[in-house]
Amino acid sequence: MALRNTMMNFSSRAIHTSAICNQIIKLTRLRVVDNSDIGKQAMVEGKPPKCIHIYNKIGVGYIGDKVLVAIKGEKKKGILVGLKQNQKTKVPKFDSNNIVLIDDSGTPLGTRIHVPIPHILRTILKNKTHAKGADYTKLIAIATRFV
Amino acid sequence: MHGALKMSAAVGRVLSQQMRQSLKVLKSLAGKKNRCFSASVPIPKEGSVSNNEQKSVNRGKSADPLECRFMYPEFLPDPKPEYRNSLREKLERADMMARRSKIDIPEFYVGSILAVTVSDPHAPGKSNRFVGICIKRSGCGLRANFILRNVVDNQGVEVLYELYDPTIQKIDCLRLEKRLDNELLYLRDAPEEYSTFSFDMEPEIIPEGTPVPVNDLKVTLKPQPWLEKWERKDLKGVRDIVVNQKREMKAKAALKPWEKYDLMKIYRETIPEEEQKEIFAEVYSDLHNLEITRQKMKRQRTFIRPKKSG
Amino acid sequence: MSLILKTLTSIQSFSNLLKPGIEVTTLAKRGAKRLNPYPKKRHPGWLPRPTHVLYKDDITPENTKFIKEVVETRFGKPDVGLGMQSKSISPLRNEPIEPQTEWKEGMRRTGVIAKKIGVYPMWLKDGTKVLSTLLQVIDNHVIRYMSPEEYAPVIQRNNIRNRLGCLIVGAESMDPQLFTKEYCGVFNESGVLPKRMLGRFLISPNAALQPGTPLYAAHFKPGDYVDIRGKTIDRGFQGVMKRWGFKGMPASHGVTKTHRRGGNIGSGGTKARVMPGTKMPGHMGNRWRVFRGIRILRINTKYNVIWALGPHIPGETNSLLYMYDTVLPTRKPSTAPHFPTYLPSIQENPVEEELWAEDVHRFDDPCIEFIEETK
């Protein structure tokens, strides 16, 4: 027991102990949940992307918001498709902060999303899509499962 | 100086004697009427599992209306005196019964597995079904809510539902059981297999009159970091929580062993027993009738099923 | 001669010093030089002037009991608002006056005094959850009507159009032994038990009611908009962060002793003073506030309860507040309300027990379902 305790002492040094931020702000680590090459590699290497900008006026990312991430030394855009923070009733809350990488026109970089996507995202993304701007509804098409 | 010390020592002794006496009284109280105090504590903190099983509610026929407070805890109002009003509580109960007459809200506890079907304007079929383990129940009156947790495609998902929300079409209790704790929020830091449930799970049928089974499953948490300081929560359903010395010492310092003797704290947490009796005497007959109709429906369903398979 | 005079005056001044004299010093009157002076406390015309006379009746406990019995046999048990139909209808005037005029736009009718009894959620038909405040119209009776001439006599002949009368409404009947003789005398005209709270509503003379007329929750209709005036929760002396929502100052980075303080309140130079109306710590709450344009979602006519939209109606739970038709021009009713009030005796068909606004989901309705759009 004592040995285990000392081991815990030793090992816990490496763990950062700052308070958990329940919001998507700049420098939040995110999880890529699609099968794009760059996203897969980053997650396998243990270097998850970092949020470096949020495309709204409050600087806090909520579900369906577009973010700019730094991933493997590159800048990519992504859509938040699942959040850890508390949600409204009937909206699912996830155990990780998930993003799907997209390009400027709103087309996803991958071809599959391997985690469930909330149903409310259909409505949110449909509202965000403009006729002449980016079309985000392609993201819904590559989702495999909804909750 | 010396005299003062003596005095204080004497006072301390007297105090400690009084404390001891009060503790005795409290202990006898706790032994006898542990369950009468609080509704939010379905399982008494002191006592073994076998004790729990003896005391747990007999389903189907609850002779004592007061036993309903474990089955239907949301019928008890917020005990805060500044929010209480007997007429408001009465109207709220009437509304709750009106809703219950339209939708079958089954008996369930923290640890039970539920399937909830809601009408969802965002979903393609305009309805959405979610299955999961109930990890928390809170709120009273029409504000009552519960959280379901499940792991779908290796991704933990939690949904908060309101019990009296009219968009809920159906609530099914797939597996009726209790766990050792009143909140299972630690499942967020437990391995995935503890909160993985299949969406096409068949409802398990428990024979009538049997007490609600208590699942004494103990989970092992994942290594740190955790979402909360679980070592401080006095969790029954978690196998040996090991933390480093510093956290252990801090947990020890944060212990409040006197709280279980704090009569005023217990008093403030719930409303008096007489009022609880009054409330459940009012809704008992309606609730009982609803339960009887539900059992009838269940029997019909169980009767039909073998026909289908055969 | 001059020397004698000098000595005399010196003696006089000396003796003045020896004499005990009264010195008059003027003290600064508090609040006298305020920019906005405190409102003048006016005595309400319908209440007797307070006489500071202590009545010593020396009633024996048996007699107290007897008086209570007499009161109960005459007026019935006091209405506690728990569904018991109040028997406390005025024995003097059971027949309320017939409405003489039809309702026209711009007419003002009376309001009611209600008790805030709690907040709970309700759902609309589109599935959204709203919080509603429950307001119980508790044992309301008209106490007195004062005509415009009586209430506000014309001093200047400038504006004599749209003159409003005043209707005194009382809520919550109480044991008359708890009040002074003078206060009980206020209720002689209406013939009801003395009330806990009296309120004044300005009405057009067409909407006048006879004293003793009971007012019910059905005075309003679901979907109507009302203004509610209540006394906010008393929070005592509070700092700027709680009282005005200031941000405070940082918790660290060298900040000492000024974490919840307001900071600077003004500059020097020509304006070397605190500007009037500066937000500073002080007493918070316990003030009359009007919350305008609140929608009524539902009315229970049995218990006289009104469900109003929104959780933030001024006052604590179980406090009394005034409720009247809104003065907001865009939310005034277009159809006729019950004018001058809801009178069960003249109503052709009695109102239902539960009245609901159109967009509110009733709790005994089936579940809400959304229909798929077909294109």
From TrEMBL, chain A:
GO biological process terms, alphabetically, are:
translation
Coarsely, its chief localization is mitochondrion
Please indicate if the UniProt record lists Transcription as a keyword. Answer: no
Q: Does the keyword Methyltransferase apply?
A: no
A molecular function annotated in GO for this UniProt entry is: structural constituent of ribosome
What's the superkingdom here? Eukaryota
SUPFAM superfamilies membership: Ribosomal protein L14
Localization, per the record, is:
Mitochondrion
Q: Record's Gene Ontology CC terms?
A: mitochondrial inner membrane; ribonucleoprotein complex; ribosome
Keywords for this entry? Answer: Mitochondrion, Ribonucleoprotein, Ribosomal protein, Transit peptide
Alphabetized SMART domains for the sequence: Ribosomal_L14
Record-linked InterPro entries: Ribosomal_uL14, Ribosomal_uL14_sf
Tell me its family. Belongs to the universal ribosomal protein uL14 family.
- PANTHER family recorded for this chain? 39S RIBOSOMAL PROTEIN L14, MITOCHONDRIAL, LARGE RIBOSOMAL SUBUNIT PROTEIN UL14M
Protein name listed in UniProt = Large ribosomal subunit protein uL14m
Organism the protein comes from: Cephus cinctus
The taxonomy runs: Eukaryota, Metazoa, Ecdysozoa, Arthropoda, Hexapoda
Automatic annotation (TrEMBL), chain B:
Keyword annotations from UniProtKB, A to Z: Mitochondrion, Ribonucleoprotein, Ribosomal protein, Transit peptide
> Where located?
Mitochondrion
Q: Sorted alphabetically, which InterPro entries does this protein's record hold? A: Ribosomal_bL19, Ribosomal_bL19_sf, Translation_prot_SH3-like_sf
Instruction: Give the principal location in a single coarse category.
Output: mitochondrion
Nucleus among keywords: no
Q: Which GO terms describe its cellular component?
A: mitochondrial large ribosomal subunit
Q: Which domain of life is it from?
A: Eukaryota
Q: State the name under which the record lists this protein.
A: Large ribosomal subunit protein bL19m
- Organism from which the protein derives: Cephus cinctus (Wheat stem sawfly)
**Gene of origin?**
LOC107269601
From TrEMBL, chain C:
Q: Which InterPro entries match?
A: Ribosomal_uL3, Ribosomal_uL3_bac/org-type, Transl_B-barrel_sf
> What Gene Ontology terms describe what this protein does at the molecular function level?
structural constituent of ribosome
* SUPFAM superfamilies reported in the protein's UniProt record: Translation proteins
Keywords recorded for this protein, A-Z: Ribonucleoprotein, Ribosomal protein
Question: Region entry Disordered: which residue ranges?
Answer: 252-279
Gene Ontology BP terms: translation
GO CC annotation: mitochondrial large ribosomal subunit
Q: Which family does it belong to?
A: Belongs to the universal ribosomal protein uL3 family.
Protein's recorded name: Large ribosomal subunit protein uL3m
Upper classification of the source organism reads:
Eukaryota, Metazoa, Ecdysozoa, Arthropoda, Hexapoda
